[in-house]
Structures are given as C-alpha cells and as structure tokens.
Prior knowledge:
179 residues, alpha+beta, ph1033 like fold, 8 helices, 6 strands, 36% helix, globular
Amino acid sequence: xxxxxxxxxxxxxxxxxxxxxxxxxxxxxxxxxxxxxxxxxxxxxxxxxxxxxxxxxxxxxxxxxxxxxxxxxxxxxxxxxxxxxxxxxxxxxxxxxxxxxxxxxxxxxxxxxxxxxxxxxxxxxxxxxxxxxxxxxxxxxxxxxxxxxxxxxxxxxxxxxxxxxxxxxxxxxxxxxxx
Length: 179
C-alpha cells in the first residue's frame, strides 16, 4: 500500500474530518493553531499517534458541505496518553478549489482509499497522488456542462395529460378510478 512507502521516506499526509458547525476550517484560520482532539475510533487514534511534526493535513468538512477545504501542518504530537494523543495543528491555506466527496469518489487516485472503505474514520492517511490531487487538481463538477432543466407548471401539466392519455390507450386505469 502506498501509505506505507510514504512513512519510509519520513513523510505522511492525512485527511482530517471535522464537522464545520463544531469546528470549521475558518475557526482554525481564526485561531491559527489548535489541538485536534475528541477522536475515539481505535484505528484513527493509531493514525494520530503516528503523525510527526511537519506533516501535511487536509481539512475535510463532514456532515455539512462534505468537501476538503484547506490545509494544516502538524506542529507536535503528545502521546503521553495513548488513548487520547494530542496533535497540535497550525492552520495552512484554503484550497483554491474545494474538493467535494463526489469529486473524490470519481477520482481514480481515491479508488483504494480508506476514505471510501471505512467512511466513518475521522483521520485518513493519504498518499502522494491523493494529496497532489486535493491540492492542485482542477475538477469540473459532475454535469457542469449539462443544460439546466427548468420545470414549469405548464410542462408538468402537459406531462400529466400525456401520462393519462397513454394510460387510457394501454388500458391501464388510474388507482383513483379503481375505488
């Protein structure tokens, strides 16, 4: 797995999920630094303990927004309590283009990611290609070129009339008439 090869070079990167209504990337920018805490999942705790000073983190807003929005850098890791390692983060920069969960799901670099295999993890290791994609790729939203379909009352009425006449031609009776 590619994540392991990154550790051999001494460099890792992580996607950190945060609920923006609890602590958003804007809060991190305002505060400058914060301690990343409140993690309970055993696998996520192992990943937190493995973090090292200077490593890159990508902040992802979960629940609301569902997109990667910015970066942070690991300042320090206090492992004195193995059940609750304290990772201090320094705010980085806002991503030029936030990457939605749907965009990530479509990107080939995320095909084998824990992000989609264990979606409840709040700390996900990233490989070099994933970090590069999150920070630098320009992605068109799905169906960006598709013309916008507008629905008017007139078109809905026409569809309803057409459906009723098709039902009559095929001998299908509407459920309301069965009563």
